[in-house]
Amino acid sequence: MIEFPFGEDALRFIIENRVEYITSFLQFFTFLGEEEGYILIITFIYMVYDKSLAVRLAAIVLATMAINHLLKMVIGNPRPFVKEGTFLQNWLISPDYAQELATEFSTPSGHAMSSFSFYAYLYHIFRNLYFRVIIVLVIIFIGISRPYLAVHFIEDIVLGWIMGLAIVALVIKYSKVIANLWKKLSLLKQMSFTIGISFVSWTVTFYINGGDISSQPLPFVGHLGFILGVILGFNLEQKSLNFNPKSKNVGIKILRWIITIVMVMMPLIILEETSNVYWSEPTYLSHTFHYVSYTLSGFLGMYVAPFLFLKLNLVDYFRE
Question: Considering the entire predicted model, what is its pTM?
Fold first, then answer.
């Protein structure tokens, strides 16, 4: 464990001066930096605007989240107020979520890191000045929301932004090279590579945690599984469906988006309910089930939903 001179005095000042309307405002932005927020945005882009952009964004944010978990486990810096056991009193989140979050490390902030790479990539793609101003504000407010809720040190946010900037800069610089190399691989090789990376990453973190399965963060496992589901689903969609996301009217597009969200979230909701009943403690089987459930979630969104919409005439085939 690396000891950081991160102080809690600034967080205590924030806690003592919280304001209700600011709390609601920043809770919305912290949602935009969470898994569910990214699902809403990516499924919207996939179903109504640009499939390739949606897949690139999914790959960027999921890879960033996975890297973030690796960094957290290597650094091993506890979240604020966890050592002294007062996090339930100080964190402005639900008690159940707080108990879960307290088992994860703090540095760097996953919200700051993933939101920077995700939204900065959107900033790079769209050149509209007003849109870019909004993007910058979203990144800033997501970052600010974490120490405001007292779940992160201010230093975690700064480091998260720096790491997110580094990732998105590398993606932008080498995206064409990466895409060309990736396209040369068959679907079987792409899946084998993804599963292999997932297994190696899990094994490395397992040994970092001293071989303790209970210390393995399940979100890390889920994000790796999600990447596999997205790759498999999008490949099959491109080869056998190739739907046009811009087809049909606005009402049907919104309907497609809502149904896709439901389909993507369904395995995750079932996973959560099943885990509460059968896996109160982490096991190898629960980790496998977690990985498979997230793979299914990505696959449903990328392939099964478009297949269903084509059958129901809610979307057209893409015509060059």
Answer: 0.92
